[in-house]
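ARCHIVE CARD
CATEGORY: sequence design from structure
SOURCE FIELD: tokenized fold
FIELD CONTENT:
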């Protein structure tokens, strides 16, 4: 893809390519590898009629793929990047998936996301965002989960993580160094730090799922109301 050092397009996805048939559609090789393993977890943990808000949807391939595989689910994608939103809209249009809403412009660091008037969501999903954004984005994400999920609702995150202060593999350590070289505010986070931040927003870590390529899925649940 066109690389503009320092520009958002570069940050969106270094290895994304545009499809020649529909120039606004971006395709990420990583998504082709991770979408089915992620879908398997989502199908297990989400209610079949869940209303899902996805943050940092990027190119939009995940949204189109998951929505097509889970027809009872309503999927709301979002991204703060205009190229990403154009790509998401193009994927939805091309695949004609009826249960995906048009993409929203949401920066998770904002105090309000413009969806606060809607009924509470059953789940928030953020794939490959936590390590490719400043720590403030993770704090905004968990605050949003506390604000927008129904009691018992889920926050699903996916990506590489450290555990107990250590990288899980040398390749993740190298990846972390390359991320920090690109932007010092980025980096592979520790599961414990994310969990601690989530607990401040009434979110409890329910499950850690080991995923291919040394990634983890984290499933947090919003505390249920005490009777
Ligand atoms: C590596 S891409 C991941 C995209 C997609 N989820 C995937 O896995 O292919 C990181 C995404 O995070 C988004 N992002 C970065 N900072 C953000 C923020 N503060 N709020 C919401 N999204 C953000 C970027 O626009 C980008 O789309």
């Amino acid at each position: 893809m066109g690389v503009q050092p320092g520009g958002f397009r570069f940050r969106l996805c270094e290895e994304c390519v545009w499809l020649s048939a529909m120039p606004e559609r971006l395709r990420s090789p990583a998504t082709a590898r991770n979408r089915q393993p992620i879908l398997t977890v989502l199908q297990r943990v989400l209610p079949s009629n869940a209303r899902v808000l996805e943050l940092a949807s990027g190119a939009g391939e995940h949204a189109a793929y998951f929505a097509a595989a889970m027809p009872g689910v309503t999927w709301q994608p979002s991204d703060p990047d205009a190229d990403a939103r154009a790509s998401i809209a193009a994927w939805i249009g091309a695949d004609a998936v009826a249960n995906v809403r048009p993409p929203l412009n949401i920066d998770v660091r904002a105090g309000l996301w413009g969806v606060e008037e809607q009924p509470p969501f059953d789940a928030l999903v953020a794939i490959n965002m936590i390590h490719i954004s400043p720590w403030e984005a993770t704090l905004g994400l968990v605050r949003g989960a506390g604000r927008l999920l129904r009691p018992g609702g889920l926050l699903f995150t996916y990506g590489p993580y450290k555990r107990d202060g250590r990288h899980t593999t040398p390749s993740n350590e190298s990846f972390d160094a390359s991320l920090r070289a690109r932007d010092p505010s980025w980096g592979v986070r520790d599961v414990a730090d994310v969990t601690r931040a989530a607990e401040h927003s009434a979110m409890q870590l329910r499950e850690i799922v080991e995923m291919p390529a040394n990634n983890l899925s984290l499933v947090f649940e919003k505390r249920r109301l005490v009777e």
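CARD ANNOTATION: DSSP finds seven helices and ten strands in the chain. The CA atoms of residues 25 and 163 lie 35 Å apart.
SHELF: design records, drawer C
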